[in-house]
Batch of 2 targets.
Target 1
Amino acid sequence: MNDEDARPDHSEGAPISTRQDSSIERALRAGLTDFELSPEDEALLDSAGPSGADTGPAGVQPVVAVVGRPNVGKSSLVNRILRRREAVVEDVPGVTRDRVSYEAEWAGRRFTVVDTGGWSADATGIHLRVAEQAEIAIELADVVMFVVDATVGATDDDEAVVRLLRRSKRPVVLVANKVDDQRGEADAATLWSLGLGQPWPVSAIHGRGSGDVLEALIEVLPEVSAHGSSVQGGPRRVALIGRPNVGKSSLLNRLAGSERVVVDDVAGTTRDPVDELIELGGITWRFVDTAGIRRRVHQARGADFYASLRTQTALEKAEVAVVLIDAEEPIAEQDVRVIQQAIDAGRALVVAYNKWDTLDEERRYYLEREIERELGQVPWAPRVNVSAKTGRHMDRLVPALETALESWDTRISTGRLNAFLGEIVAAHPHPVRGGKQPRILFATQASTRPPRFVLFTSGFIEAGYRRFLERRLREQFGFEGTPIEVSVRVREKRRR
């Protein structure tokens, strides 16, 4: 190639290499026309654009949590809002056990609606877990739709939910369900006694009154979420997570420069995570602490469950997780689970080893071996060795957070991605299985936060080969401090 060829082509505004990547992308996309693509495939390809540019969200959609005691018709109401039968409905209580989110739209306003299991004040066992999931949904919601069975009236459990809602200080839309005719409206009117404002009479099954209650919802619904993962332009949110007694609260107090967090919170507190705005490295961060779980887990409700539950709450309110590990003690199974939780939640990740200043040479040697053995799945996570007690190496935390978040937000152009994968596959093709060798037809980055890649292929891609591709993507593009996802869509050729 001569010097003239190497110079950027200003007439097209792109260097030669960029234009070559774009040419590869166009050729591969053209080849996709020979394959059966679903409407979802077409939408994904259209959203990627010619260069995979990512304009970023203007803000997180507002979140509406639908709560109430079991069998009051929450899932039926969700289906009515969605205008399709999506949530599972049966005439027995307890069908919905987890929080399930759906995208919804009304009067041109888009929002996320969260269906929850039934809340009960005296729940035990699996029902306790359902109730706690409903509590988390309320905490992460912008508006709550509280559903009451108008034919039964307000029960003691309903009164308990009211107290929970008042503490949450969220706007509440009170739904009096199962009002199938005008006679039932008198029953709905008795729910004024709950003190939550106007009860809206609705028949979720038949649709009666659903338009009115949705108009009431839109009136109190914010434009963007104030309680979701993050709102663009606000402080980056950091979750301090880890098993009990590893020093999370001590670390937060050290970062804040004051005793902001009580390590042992008052027994019986329902909301343990604490948000603190802290300036570090000239940047304001919002730290979400999970202090206080130690007292709660002394109640006979399952230590692992509560630790996991509070960790999940903090993660859902955060963008990056700092997993704190006690370097003095052997790495425990619960440490590994907490790290996996952060990965499963799709959050950026930094691993901090606390009490580093107390380690002798022998312990440091064995800790390194434990890290290799127990945490071999996260060699990409930035590591910092700190001491919450003395403040040692605290200055290393901010660069690690910035690196992880930058990777979390990274987008690779579609042309560059396909050119890179073409080179990899040419040098290391997928093994032949059953006389066939699957081909990667086209690849695109579907989203960021974390980076998610979708491969359109002519056949099944084995898990080992996916891990190989993920490893090579990390080697080429970095992605230090963020999980990445590689999913495969197998598509067949169109029939002539």
Note: DSSP finds 16 helices and 15 strands in the chain.
Target 2
Amino acid sequence: MMNRRLPARVLAVSTLALALGACSLAPTYHRPAAPVPDRFPLTAAGNGQADQAAQAVQDTQAGLPAWRDFFQDPRLQALIELALKNNRDLRIAVDRVEEARAQFGIAQSDRLPTIGVQGTGQVTRSPADMRNGGADAKSVNRSYVAGVGMTAFELDFFGRVRNLSEAAYQSYLSTDQARRTVQLGLIAQTAEAYFRLRSAQALHELMDKTLEARKGTLDLVQSRFDVGVASDLDLAQAQSQYDTVRADRIATERAMAQAVNALQLILGTPVPQDLPAPQPFGRAQLLSSLPAGLPSQLLERRPDIIGAEHDLMAANAQIGAARAAFFPRISLTGLLGFASPELDGLFGGSQRYWQYSPQIQMPLFSGGIKGNLDLAKARSNIAVSSYEKAIQTAFREVADGLAGEATYSSQLDALRATEESALKALKLAQIRYETGVDSFLQVQSAQVALYGVQQQFIQLGTDALFNRVELYKALGGGWSADDLPEAS
């Protein structure tokens, strides 16, 4: 009767161990206070726009638009889709999620007993002077055992295994947020590489037009030189102006080729020839300006900050596991089945067999246990500082983006006015030169000024696009589940 009760007792002890595994020595987790101001600088909204800014805050808290709504150029949308499917950095990030998920599965399995079918056989021949029963006893002894067994299952009274499993789970969640960070960065990188290519193309078009204008000026000065009206200096200056633009045009062709190469690396595949027609290069390629005067709590939606908090929670669980190492570890090994000296009679009704082997380990003198706890606490402090630094860095990125949104538009308007003035100055200088009032030096100065302003305008417009993309990224971006690949 006792033999029948013992397996039930073993099962009851195992069940109790699983229930007691809920005990944990990990510190109670409290999210650290964000070491940044409550709100971002209200750089783009004055006192008279407070209500409008408040409404913008509510709209943004509801969620930023998906990337398809933010990036409105159909060619850019097609490029982003290609990058999300083929970029190798993103593939690595997805595979790392799978790696972390497998590691969590391994840690989680330690919380459950390992039960399996076991079978052993042993045949022993003993010399005559070592046989039980003397020289007349059998020289060969056989034994066979088969049954269902449990191997070294730890009774997790103090939550060591549970905290290790929790740490692995939080690491898995952190890795998944790292994948989202890579996805968001990839979208921004694709957009910036595309805008860099479009900027080089815009500069090339500008230089084509400027080169045509400079060729006309050179022909004019040459004709005046041929009739003795223009000097050698005028002709040399006109030729120099023409050659300068021609050299710039060649450099821009190199920049376009390099921009295509950079874009192709990000895409992970050759740039297709059948892409949709692009929109005109400018601010219309992106959603209108993002709101300013935002609460800093919006940073909590950034995947890198979410991931840093999961790292912090993993470190917190590691402290619990390190504390549990100071207490006894109890493990069970058992077997329930049949045993027989003959293989043919192994599974007979009278051959029932059980074995129960508990083991207790209690540390007495071990400096390594104390060192592991100190190590876990140090890593937890590092995780806290990393989490706070991630928030501070994110706050700065958003604040810089908002400052750009508040100033780029006015700066572009000022450059646009400067371009109009420079164009007017060039026309007047050409008239005065053709009528003999001024030398060609005035025309040259006006051409250089206009050319510089036009180049600056294209570059500043590109910087404004980059700033808006970076602000969208700094705020955590926006996407739908159907747009981005998930780890499977």
Note: The mean pLDDT is 82.
